[in-house]
Amino acid sequence: MQILSTELRGDQPSPILDDAETADAVRCSDAVLNRLGIRLFLEYRSRAAYKRYATHTNSDSPEGDLDGYRAELASRERSEAIAGYRGVACDVRNLIFAARYKPELIIRDAAQGIVEVVKNKEHCLLSDRPVTSAGLTMAELVDWWGFRDGEYGRPRDDQVDRLRAKLTTQ
Known about the structure:
The chain is mostly helical and 170 residues long. The chain is 49% helix and 11% strand. It has two domains: 82 residues, no CATH class; 82 residues, no CATH class.
């Protein structure tokens, strides 16, 4: 939602998305939220439409319009962080990989399966996302890397190349 808000305002020096791509982002957000049972009712569907809407309503930011959706998503994330991983019920809770040096771990909460890397953390990758029953796919790994690395605006091929380079240098 933050990316969508930033892109709708279009006030950054070099936007990541053009108007058509911003409209696609709104449609994608709408589809994802609908799958979660959250209905997205925005008065605008593109950056240009948002500009017209903001002028008409004297709104200077889409933040307020998106706050309700952010709150609902945060609530779902909190509930899934507890129920979705199922820690000791044999689902993956901690995924630590590509370690150059063996990470040293401590158990923070044995009942919940929460561990913390206390040594050599900089020499390994730690996934903070739940692994579905289908397992970890390369697409999910690249998505995770793009957001972790802060490079979600880069072309997909660049993200894959940067992840591959990180995995081979670890």
